[in-house]
Amino acid sequence: MTASCLRVERVSLVDGVRLAAREPAPLAALCYGQVPGAPPWLSTVDTRVLGAGDPVVDFWHGNTHAEITVGSTGAVNWRSDGTWLWGSIELDETKADARDLGELAERAYRDLFRTLDAVRIPHLLRIWNYLPQINADGGGLERYRQFNQGRQQAFVDAGQAAFDGAPAACALGVREGGLCIRFLAGRQAPVPVENPRQVSAYRYPDTYGPRAPTFSRAALADVGDEVALFVSGTASIVGHETLHAGDVHAQTRETLRNLDALVAAANATGGTRFSVDALDCVVYVRHPHDVAAVMSVIDEVVGAPSRFVRHAVVLQADICRSDLLVEIEAHAFAPGRLHA
Ligand code: 3EB
C-alpha cells in the first residue's frame, strides 16, 4: 500500500550530500550535528556529535510517486507529498519581540496549527523541539517552563489534544541559536502510548511548572502495511520524579527500563512486535565527559551488536530538567496494522 508509505533512511552526512541529489527528493532531511553553511534542504539540529561520530542525516521519505509541494505559513516552512507533512520553524528570539520564550513558543505553535489547516493534513505525530538555554532562568521562571506555558496554550487555543492524544515529542536544550521546531503530521490520528512506570507528562504536578509539558510518551501510526513507532524523549523519571540525580550510569539504566516498558506498552496497544534493540535512537548526553559511561551501559544492557547501538546518534544537549544527564528518543517500523 504505497498510498501512505513513509520510511526513514539514516546516513552519514557525506552520504547524505550525495543522496540528496537523487530523484525523487525526500520529504525531509533532519541532520543531527553541526554543519557550517548547511545546504537549504537540510533541517539541522545544531548540537555537537559526541564520540567518534560525524553528523548524521535522517531522510524521511514519503510517497515516492507523489510530487512534493513546498510552502510557508507564518514562521513554518513546510513540505508535503499530500499524505505526510513535514514542517520546520526557526525563530530568532533576539529579533522576535516576544515577552519571553513562552510567548515565542505560543506563536510558533499557532503557526504550526495554521499550517495543518492550510495543508489539510490534520494530525500531528511527532515534534522535535530545540530550545536555546533551556534550563536558564527566564525572569522568575525557567525557560523550559515558559516554553511549556506557551506550547500548552497554543494546543488549547487550536482545539488540539493537549492531554490524552498529544503527539510524541522531545524538547532539548541547545547552547545558542533560535527556537527550533520540526514536526511530522499525517492524515490519521496517531494512537498514543503511555508508560505505566511514569505519570503522563501532561499530568505532571505544578511543581514542574505552571503548565504541564504537552506530549505523549510514544505514538503509533499506520504506514501502509507497517506501523510506525515514535518514542518521545525518555529519561530517568519514575512516577513524575527524577531518579539517580548525579549518577549517569544509574540514569542510563533507568532510561533503558523506561524504554523497555514503553515498547511493551506499544506492543500491547498495537499488536506489534517492536523491540528496544531494533530502535533507531538518538541519545542526548548533557556532559560530553559522560558519553563513555552512557554508551558502556547501553552496550551492556542492549548489546553492542544491536541495531540500537550501531545506528545510535549521540549528541551533546541539555535536558529539560537540570538534574537529568541523559535522554533517549527513537523511531522504528514494524509489520502490523492499527486501523482496519
Ligand atoms: C520527561 O520525561 C523528560 O517537553 O516535549 C521528554 C520528552 C521530556 C518531551 C517535551 C520533555 C518533552 O519529562 C523530558
Characterization of this structure:
With 340 residues, the protein is an alpha+beta fold. The chain has a single domain, classed as 60s Ribosomal Protein L30, Chain: A, CATH 3.30.1330. It has 6 helices and 18 strands. The protein has helices at 13-19, 101-119, 143-157, 248-270, 291-303, 307-310; strands spanning 7-12, 28-32, 43-45, 56-61, 69-73, 76-80, 85-91, 123-132, 168-174, 179-186, 191-193, 218-223, 226-234, 237-238, 241-242, 280-285, 313-316, 326-335. A 6-stranded mixed β-sheet has the order 5-6-7-10-8-9, with helices on one face. A hairpin with a 2-residue loop joins strand 12 (218-223) and strand 13 (226-234). The structure holds 3-(2-carboxyethyl)benzoic acid. The site of 3-(2-carboxyethyl)benzoic acid has 12 residues, from strand 9 and strand 13.
Write the layout of secondary structure elements.
Blueprint: E1 7-12, H1 13-19, E2 28-32, E3 43-45, E4 56-61, E5 69-73, E6 76-80, E7 85-91, H2 101-119, E8 123-132, H3 143-157, E9 168-174, E10 179-186, E11 191-193, E12 218-223, E13 226-234, E14 237-238, E15 241-242, H4 248-270, E16 280-285, H5 291-303, H6 307-310, E17 313-316, E18 326-335
Parallel strand pairs: 2-3, 8-9, 16-17
Antiparallel strand pairs: 1-4, 2-4, 5-6, 6-7, 7-10, 8-10, 11-12, 12-13, 13-18, 14-15, 16-18
Helix pairs in contact: 2-3, 4-5
